């Protein structure tokens, strides 16, 4: 009996593999069909269209009102006769090789772009980030992608805290109130008008019910959850504080309030909330991480340092943990320990060292210590030259060759708050390339506004995905570069890029 079952195992495994291959193939075919249908339904390209192709990663694709669409609106409002159309080929999380590879399947004959705007390179890690063929194949698998989607949908977010928290079964048709579920990382609120109208209607109804009732704790839970999910933290703060008085010691409400305090830059209030939870649940790594972040922001150097050491011991690739260690070693005057640690990171984990240099530079910059800031940015720049330059340079050269082959102007654009000098290393001096920086414009804006006014996160260390205002700064820089290059303000028709001069750069 046992030997018979064993003989059947290879057959069963082959059938499973065959089914998986069929499923993978079906998903790819359905995806390609969807793209084909979408392409047919797109606005028809006219010969008189001034087409701009934008390529890059999530900095081009994501954020609030992404800059490519703002650029299209700006140019069409300023030069309506141009009929500008921006075509985006950005893909979140892509390195420059993947971005350049994607251009091989781009329909050049259909779109005939006159300008290519490239902002890419932040995901490059050269040989250091190179994956085996097996893991690269898994990354591209549609089955894996579908599983990730359903996992995210089933738990609501990737939060470790949430996945470990017991969630009561909700048999009603109403959403689970905030008192029954903790969302550690509040979702990005939708920005379309219909959504905002529905949210405001819900808030108005809940407020009225609370006003007319002497016991409206459940409605307050729903209202608090709505504010939290919509990232309206200033309104979420007082109602969460009130809820915590109604339900003293309620863990989910306490943790949500801790996150709200962090978002509102009130880390001293967040620290005791996270401390209580971590003391009772030392196994919860994400709550531990939030306590580290709160202690760091509250300038509790000793506590932040000890917490960060635990974080990196459990997660050796946790970039923020290493940065918190370095920063608090600096704050406590342990200069020798700082340099020793940075040398070790440069030798063994240069990608993490690069993040730490950027983040420490940003921290010094926010304190107005520009000499120290520039020193760390320069060290990050030197490290990138040593480790990451080859892949990015090769990919930019490929994009440049394609731009010349198709008579398009290449705009090589740097990320916010990073020096344009890095970009110039990728090219010789005789190429017709327009360099656009986003360093000075963002630094000037930060002089009159906060970091959160320009970025929705700090995903990349010194910068993050942009708010609508941040994306507007990028779009304005590109618009000015294109207008100047093609002499649009002089009401001349756009010229062929190949007729222009040599290297051109947007003035600082």
Key words describing this protein structure:
Rossmann fold; globular; 508 residues; 61% helix; single chain; alpha/beta
| Number of H/I helices | 24
The CATH class of the domain at 45-126 and 408-505 is identified as: Alpha Beta
Distance between the termini: 80 Å
| Helix content bin | 55-70%
Query: Helices and strands, in N-to-C order?
Result: HEHHEHHEHHHHHHHHHHHHHHHEHEHHHE
Side-by-side strand order of the widest sheet = 2-1-3-4-5-6
User: How many β-strand stretches?
Assistant: 6
What would the CATH topology of the domain at 45-126 and 408-505 be?
Rossmann fold
Largest sheet: 6 strands, parallel
How large, in whole angstroms, is the Cα Rg?
A: 26 Å
Q: For the record, what is the CATH homologous superfamily label of the domain at 45-126 and 408-505?
A: SGNH hydrolase
- The low-pLDDT segments are 37-43, 126-133, 151-191, 492-508
Instruction: Give the percentage of residues in beta strands.
Output: 5-15%
CATH level-two architecture of the domain at 45-126 and 408-505: 3-Layer(aba) Sandwich
What is the overall silhouette? globular
- Which class do the helix and strand fractions yield? alpha/beta
Mean pLDDT, all residues: 77
Quick structural gist:
With 508 residues, this protein is an alpha/beta fold.
Structure, explained:
- By secondary structure, this protein is of the alpha/beta class.
- Among the domains are: 45-126 and 408-505, SGNH hydrolase (Rossmann fold), CATH 3.40.50.1110; 138-264, no CATH class.
- The chain contains 24 helices and six strands.
- It has helices at residues 2-41, 58-61, 67-78, 96-102, 108-111, 133-140, 142-155, 160-164, 193-211, 217-229, 233-246, 251-263, 267-280, 285-297, 301-314, 319-331, 335-348, 350-366, 370-387, 389-405, 421-424, 440-448, 451-454, 468-485, and strands spanning 50-56, 84-88, 115-119, 409-416, 433-438, 504-505.
- A six-stranded parallel sheet has the order 2-1-3-4-5-6, with helices on both faces.
- Helix 10 packs antiparallel against helix 11 (233-246), helix 16 (319-331) runs antiparallel to helix 17 (335-348) and helix 17 crosses helix 18 (350-366).
């Amino acid at each position: 009996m046992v030997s018979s079952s064993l003989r059947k195992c290879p057959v069963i495994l082959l059938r499973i593999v065959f089914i998986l291959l069929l499923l993978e193939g079906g998903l790819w075919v359905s995806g390609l069909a969807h793209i084909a249908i979408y392409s047919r339904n797109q606005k028809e390209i006219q010969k008189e269209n001034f087409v701009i192709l934008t390529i890059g990663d999530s900095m081009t694709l994501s954020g609030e009102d992404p800059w490519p669409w703002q650029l299209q609106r700006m140019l069409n409002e300023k030069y309506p006769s141009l009929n500008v159309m921006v075509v985006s080929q950005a893909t979140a999380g892509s390195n420059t090789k993947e971005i350049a590879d994607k251009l091989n399947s781009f329909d050049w004959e259909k779109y005939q772009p006159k300008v290519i705007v490239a902002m890419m390179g932040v995901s490059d890690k050269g040989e250091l980030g190179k994956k085996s063929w097996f893991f690269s194949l898994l990354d591209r698998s549609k089955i894996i992608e579908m599983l990730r989607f359903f996992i995210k949908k089933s738990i609501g977010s990737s939060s470790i805290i949430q996945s470990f928290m017991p969630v009561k079964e909700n048999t009603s048709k109403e959403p689970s109130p905030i008192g029954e579920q903790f969302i550690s990382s509040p979702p990005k609120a939708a920005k379309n008008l219909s959504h905002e109208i529905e949210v405001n209607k819900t808030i108005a109804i809940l407020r009225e019910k609370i006003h007319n009732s002497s016991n409206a704790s459940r409605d307050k839970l729903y209202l608090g959850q709505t504010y939290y999910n919509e990232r309206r933290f200033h309104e979420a703060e007082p109602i969460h504080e009130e809820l915590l008085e109604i339900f003293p010691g309620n863990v989910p409400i306490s943790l949500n309030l801790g996150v709200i305090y962090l978002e509102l830059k009130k880390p001293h209030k967040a620290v005791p909330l996270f401390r209580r939870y971590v003391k009772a649940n030392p196994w919860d790594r994400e709550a531990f991480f939030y306590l580290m972040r709160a202690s760091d922001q509250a300038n509790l150097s000793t506590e932040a340092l000890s917490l960060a050491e635990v974080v990196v011991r459990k997660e050796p690739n946790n970039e923020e943990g290493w940065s918190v260690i370095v920063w608090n070693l600096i704050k406590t005057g342990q200069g020798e320990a700082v340099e020793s640690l940075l040398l070790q990171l440069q030798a063994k984990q240069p990608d993490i060292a690069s993040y730490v240099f950027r983040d420490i530079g940003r921290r010094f910059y926010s304190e107005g210590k520009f000499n120290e800031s520039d020193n760390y940015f320069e060290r990050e720049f030197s490290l990138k030259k040593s480790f990451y330059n080859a892949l990015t340079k090769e990919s930019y050269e490929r994009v440049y060759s394609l731009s010349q082959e198709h008579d398009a102007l290449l705009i090589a654009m740097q990320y916010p708050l990073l020096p344009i000098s890095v970009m110039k290393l990728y090219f010789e001096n005789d190429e017709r390339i327009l360099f656009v920086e986003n360093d000075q414009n963002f630094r000037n804006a930060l002089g009159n506004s906060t970091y959160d006014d320009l970025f929705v996160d700090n995903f990349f260390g010194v910068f993050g995905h942009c708010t609508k205002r941040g994306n507007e700064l990028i779009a304005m820089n590109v618009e000015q570069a294109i207008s100047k290059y093609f002499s649009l303000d002089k009401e001349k028709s756009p010229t062929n890029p190949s007729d222009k001069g040599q290297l051109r750069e947007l003035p600082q």
